[in-house]
Design goal:
alpha/beta, Lysozyme-like, 5 strands, about 35% helix, globular, binds zinc ion
């Protein structure tokens, strides 16, 4: 059962990845931030970038930000460009990936705190309340259920810390 779930998750993620690439162009509008998990226990912007370029054949990492388990925020694709992280939703979104496999582990408090700060910083930068969204769609269970959507949205809307 566990293996089946793992394979299902992997397949969904890989499929989602291949469907996610869009050309590296300037993003015309920014309305939402879409959160992901890396589906890995470890990693960082460099290792994900290597996977996206060497394995997927993309021009650059698909996410705009990567949040490590210790809360460190790393920059990925240039913020002004269209990302490659959520098929059909890349044109007006910013992609943020939290390191971890949230099917089997919880995000760290440090990661959540960094997300709160990042969400508010980006809201200020774009002078609007960017919608808080999860990747979860037809192709991907991302991020896993251990990241509670209701709690996460509430934390991000509570205000700066
Ligand atoms: Zn995702």
């Amino acid at each position: 059962m566990w293996l089946l779930l793992w394979l299902q998750g992997l397949l969904a993620d890989v499929l989602g990845c291949f469907l996610s690439e869009e050309p590296m162009v300037e993003r015309k509008s920014t309305n939402r931030i879409i959160y992901h998990h890396s589906l890995t226990k470890d990693g960082n912007a460099t290792s994900i970038g290597r996977w996206h370029t060497e394995h997927n054949g993309w021009e650059d990492i698909g996410y705009h930000f990567v949040i490590l388990k210790n809360g460190e925020k790393q920059e990925g694709r240039k913020l002004s460009l269209v990302g490659a992280h959520a098929y059909g939703k890349n044109a007006d979104s910013i992609g943020v990936c939290l390191i971890g496999d949230f099917r089997t582990e919880y995000p760290t408090e440090a990661q959540i705190e960094t997300c709160v700060k990042l969400q508010h910083a980006l809201n200020r930068y774009y002078s609007k309340n960017l919608s808080i969204e999860f990747h979860r769609d037809l192709y991907s269970p991302c991020p896993g259920k251990m990241l509670c959507r209701k709690c996460f949205v509430r934390r991000l809307k509570e205000g700066d810390i």
